[in-house]
Prior knowledge:
This protein has helices spanning 10-21, 33-42, 59-69, 84-92, 105-118, 152-163, 171-178, 189-201; strands at 2-6, 26-30, 47-51, 74-79, 97-100, 127-129, 132-135, 140-143, 146-147, 208-210, 214-216. By secondary structure, it is an alpha/beta fold. Strand 3 (47-51), helix 3 and strand 4 (74-79) form a beta-alpha-beta unit.
Amino acid sequence: MRVLVVEDERLLADAVATGLRRQAMAVDVVYDGEAALERVDLNEYDVIVLDRDLPLVHGDDVCRHVVAAGYPTRVLMLTASGDVSDRVEGLEIGADDYLPKPFAFTELIARVRALGRRATAALPPVLERAGITLDPNRREVFRGGRPVQLAPKEFAVLEVLMRGEGAVVSAEQLLEKAWDENTDPFTNVVRVTVMTLRRKLGDPPVITTVPGAGYRI
């Protein structure tokens, strides 16, 4: 899942991004509404965690832009105000969910994951394919009943491949969904991660390389 965090309180923004990355999400961070508009037009995000009171361009206008452009991105709006009227107003301009500050980080994660499921075709909360079971919420992977310990990026790549339901997923798509915008597009990080993922999943291999196209399970 790829997430954009838009928050002008830099310490909070960076803390949210760090926490989401620990949940195997690819996260980009910006600190004002103008930069947010540039990112949403450049990259495809599953979820935007959007502070309402932003400098340069207000969060409401960022949300309106996402809706008017027809992007499938889901918007979780944050605000220091917990008034019902503010929540209603935020939802009416197109936000998908609303979370007042201060918030519990566990609740933020749960809401981001729920919105991420809505941003794509409906799939069961626990993914199963080729003898592998992956639970995104618990961050658990089993193969044949055996637990598999994966690093965050390995987990993210496996989740993207399993959500593909047998379709070929290109290296570019894996970079888009499992890494942030600071990753060098010419790096071999995808190939290396797939290699370690294959090793940890064990035999017989379940990840197939399709030459010139990508990978699939």
